[in-house]
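User: What would this chain look like folded?
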Amino acid sequence: MLYRVVQELLNNIIKHSEATRIEVLMQYREDKMSIIVTDNGKGFHENEIQNSGKRGLGLNNIRNRISMLKGVIAIHSHPGKGTEAIIEISKQPGAP
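Assistant: Here's the prediction, encoded as structure tokens.
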């Protein structure tokens, strides 16, 4: 499921951001896994996307998948400064 989330984030960057650089950082710690995806693209106004009803199916799918994993996602973007998506999934008790 995380593979699909990262795939969708990368697809959105390729389709919309006009980025020339993408970075994906994955960290697996004792208590959680973090994935940070950043780009240097054109960015966007977060509140305009959320309030306009233009929130895409891709972003909804990402949020739903992360929710199913009992994780959180934060997306930070500013016009002209790119976008950063931070995903954190807590390690389940009893999981390896």
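Residues 2-17 form the longest helix (16 residues). If you want, I can go into more detail on any region.
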